[in-house]
Design goal:
Number of helices: 3
Strand order of the largest sheet: 1-2-5-3-4
Distance between the termini: 19 Å
Structural class: alpha+beta
């Protein structure tokens, strides 16, 4: 019964959270994906830039308003689903640096292709 309850909780979020993130994927040069880590009861969201030009390296991008609004909407949605805790980190692949940031700091980021915004939700 314990697993059935967990499954039902993840089923609702699994259908709706990716739909919320579609707006980011519609934005040029940005993509978002999410998945459940059922081992530890967390949902993970990754938002990053996409370098589609092989000839020139994409420069750092400041998250556009739609990215910020979508993050806010996903936090509100996850709170309504009982995932009251979240953490936003900014991670760079180059030096494996992870920095915890606030929602307000997201709009000040300079996101390069190997960097990403990670949001973890848990109960």
């Amino acid at each position: 019964m314990k697993h059935l309850k967990t499954y039902k909780l993840f089923e609702s979020v699994g259908n709706d959270l990716p739909d919320i993130l579609i707006e980011i994927n519609d934005e040029p040069l940005w993509k978002a994906e999410c998945w459940a880590d059922s081992q530890i009861g967390k949902w993970v969201v990754i938002i990053q830039t996409v370098d589609e030009d092989d000839e020139y390296e994409l420069e750092g991008q400041t998250p556009p308003p739609v990215v910020i609004e979508t993050i806010e909407r996903s936090i509100d949605f996850m709170n309504s689903e009982g995932f009251d805790n979240y953490q936003i980190t900014f991670e760079t692949d180059e030096d494996d640096q992870i920095e915890e940031i606030s929602l307000q700091e997201v709009s000040e980021l300079d996101v390069w292709p190997n960097n990403f915004i990670r949001i973890e939700f848990w109960k």
